[in-house]
Amino acid sequence: MKDIEEKILSGERLTREDGLRLFNCNNLAWLGNMADTVRKKKCGDVVYYNVNCHVNLTNICTSRCKFCAFGRDFENQGAYAMTKAEALAVVADAIKNPNLAGLHIVSGLHPTWTFENYLEIVKAIHETYPTLYIKGFTGVEITHFAKISGLSVKEVLIKLRDEGGLQAIAGGGAEILSDRVRQIICPKKATAAEWLEVAKIAHGLGIKTNASMLYGHIETLAERVEHLIKLRELQDETHGFQNFIPFPFLPKNTELGKTVKQTSMWDDLRTIAISRLMLDNFDNIKAYWVMLTVPVAQVALGFGANDIDGTIHKETILHDAGATSPTALSEDNIIKIIREIGRIPAAVDCNFNILRRL
Amino acid sequence: MEDFKQKALAGERLNFDDALNLYRDNDLLFLAKCARQMKERKSGNKIFYTINRHINLTNICSSNCPLCAFQVKDGDKRGFVLESADIEKILQDCQNTKNLSEVHIVSALHPNKNFDYYLNIVKQVKTALPKVDVKAFTPVEVVNFAKISGLSVKEVLIELQAAGLDSLPGGGAEIFSDRVRQIICPKKATAAEWLEVMQTAHELGIRTNASMMFGHIETIEERLQHLFTLRNLQDKTGGFQAFMLFPFHPANTILGAEKNIQCVGSWENLKMLALSRLILDNIDHFKAFWIMLTLPIAQLALGFGADDLDGTIGEEKIIHAAGAKTKTGITRSDLEKIIRETGYKPIRRDTFYQEVQNDNSASS
Ligand code: SF4
Ligand code: SF4
Question: What is the pTM assigned to this prediction?
Answer without folding.
Answer: 0.90
